[in-house]
Design brief:
Helix content: over 70%
Number of strands: 0
Distance between the termini: 85 Å
Strand content: under 5%
Shape: rod-shaped
Number of domains: 2
Structural class: mainly alpha
Number of helices: 5
Order of helices and strands: HHHHH
Radius of gyration: 41 Å
Oligomer: single chain
Length: about 190
């Protein structure tokens, strides 16, 4: 029976994954340790009481209610093991809570990083799209300005260009719908 409970507890504790918004009470290691600590402390109090022969009243009671400093000091001396067990479990619970919070923070950071990477990828695609739209717009505005300039030159000088679009491509070979670059390449 104990082996079964031990296996069940170990499998439950190792399968638990800390969630971002989980409560400490949902963490099995914390709750099991808390219950075991309470049971161990109460059991030690009962055992010490039995060993001391404390009875709960009546004619045969070996001890009477006493509120002097000596009596209270003796209670702390007699029940020191139970107090130490309880304090030990409280310290263990504090460490477990610290580990839980650390894992929870690590999960939050991991989720935040994943979200940030997704946002960066999405923004990168948006940036590329915006660059393409800008290049597209600049290309057509530049080409339109070039063609208007050619028409003005034609009217002022009384000449005629046969193919203004080919002339544009020859003068600006690195301009296109997808990429706008009017600078000549470095030589």
């Amino acid at each position: 029976m104990c082996k079964y409970l031990h296996e069940k507890m170990v499998s439950t504790l190792t399968k638990y994954e800390v969630k971002e918004d989980a409560s400490l009470w949902e963490y099995p290691l914390f709750t099991y340790t808390l219950y075991i600590g309470i049971i161990a402390t109460l059991a030690s109090i009962v055992v010490i009481s039995i060993l001391l022969g404390v009875q709960t009243g009546g004619e045969n009671a070996r001890y009477e209610s006493c509120m002097s400093m000596t009596c209270i000091n003796n209670i702390f001396i007699y029940f020191a093991p139970a107090i130490k067990i309880g304090a030990g479990f409280l310290a263990i619970l504090g460490i477990i809570a610290l580990i839980f919070r650390s894992e929870q923070t690590a999960t939050q950071i991991s989720n935040s990083n994943k979200s940030l990477q997704y946002d960066i990828a999405r923004n990168s695609k948006l940036w590329e799209h915006e660059q393409l739209k800008t290049a597209f717009s600049q290309y057509f505005q530049h080409k339109e300005t070039f063609l208007k300039l050619m028409e003005r030159i034609e009217s002022q000088l009384g000449i005629s260009f046969l193919d203004k679009t080919s002339l544009y491509r020859d003068w600006f070979p690195f301009c296109s719908v997808k990429k706008f670059d009017i600078e000549p390449p470095p030589t």
